[in-house]
Amino acid sequence: MKYVYALLVVLILAVGALTLDPSLVSVGGTPLSLIYPVNQMIAVRGVVAAVCGLVGIIVLIMALVRALMFRKGAFIAVLGVGLLAIAGGHLLILSDRGLDNPGALPPDYGLTHVAEGTGEVTVLSYNTLGGETAMTDIATIVMDNGVDVVVLSETSTANGEALAASLAAAGQGFTVYSSGADPYNPEIESTVVVLSDALGEYRQGPDIGLTWGSLHLRSVSGGPDIIAVHPVAPVRGLEESWRSDIERVYAQCGAANTIMAGDFNSTIDHMQATGASCQSALDGYVGGYGTWPASVPGIFGSPIDNVFTDWTTKAAAVVEVGNSDHRGVLVRLSR
């Protein structure tokens, strides 16, 4: 019987260890990380760590009781220790990606309307959940942090124009670009980019063909190209569309002098599972801090809002205003 117990412990720990990197196993040629519901699980490593840790503690208590009463419980003890180790592995990954959120950026000495300053570019990406986040709140973040590039998912063109007007009233010139979603459709399908005129002239090119739309802005004056994205969510019934969308998104990472931002509806783990090797500007700063849902602590959330670029990160933060179900991400970049 002890061999059966040993086999069960090994199997349980093997499955648990696989949660650290489900893409090691493929089903029909598709990495497990990209298959529902594992794609949902790997997006919330903090929750997985908490579950493994809690179960591990309970199992260790059971092992201690068995040891004291029956002088048995070695296999259960091994299981408990193993589960705690798996929990620790998830926490180490999150910690390495970054959990220390400053909540704001240091003073901005980058681009202005009259000088290039240090040449640093500050980016804000925020899913505003339609009208649930006031553009005046977004304007405050922009002005307080010296933001040059504003990428707003689930935001109507009208709201983007309202933001630009609010900034203009404060003496800052911004231009609005839209993904061109039908104004009568839910704002979930609309993404806007609001660019500081200090970046120079831009032209809007063909998008990258996502289900919910995207924008591709090309600089005329040597600034960074801007790609704004919002892939479809990885829910049951939309798995194929989701995988197609994120593959299109992460295929853009090879472009030089490009900043890609938005609600990616996927994490670094999903990106790696597609075979891409994109560089997240948040990695090592706040890359492990969950941006959705905003109703739970960052360690238990999913870091699906991101910025990918070949520029160098100088500072990064996660911010929260309004009633959106997302937090926003701020990053300051140097060429």
Automatic annotation (TrEMBL):
User: What's the domain of life for this entry?
Assistant: Bacteria
* Hydrolase keyword on record: yes
- The Endonuclease/exonuclease/phosphatase domain covers 124-326
Q: Which UniProt keywords apply?
A: Endonuclease, Hydrolase, Membrane, Nuclease, Transmembrane, Transmembrane helix
Q: Which residues cross the membrane?
A: 43-65, 74-93
Kindly give the Pfam families that the UniProt entry links to this protein: Exo_endo_phos (PF03372)
Write out the GO MF terms.
endonuclease activity
| InterPro entries in UniProt | Endo/exonu/phosph_ase_sf, Endo/exonuclease/phosphatase
The protein's name is Endonuclease/exonuclease/phosphatase family protein
Name the species this protein comes from: Flaviflexus equikiangi
Upper lineage is: Bacteria, Bacillati, Actinomycetota, Actinomycetes, Actinomycetales
